[in-house]
Amino acid sequence: MIRRTALSLIVALSFALPAVAQQDKTIRIIVPYPAGGNADNIARLFAESLSRKLAQPVIIDNKPGAGAVIGAQAAARGAADGTSLFIAPTAVFVVTPHLKQVPYDAHNDFIPVARLTTWIPVMVTRKDFPANNFTELVAELKKNPDKYTFASAGPATMTHLMGELLNLKLGTKTVHVPYKGSAEFIPDLLSGRVDMVYDSVVVPQVKGGQLKAVASMVGIRHPDLPSVPTLKEVGVDLDVPNWYGLFAPKGTPKDFVDKLGAASKEVVDGLDKDKLNKMSMSAAFQGPSAFKAQIAVDDALLRDVIKKANIRAD
Question: Which of 281, 277, 300, 250 shows the shortest CA–CA distance to 116?
Answer without folding.
Answer: 281
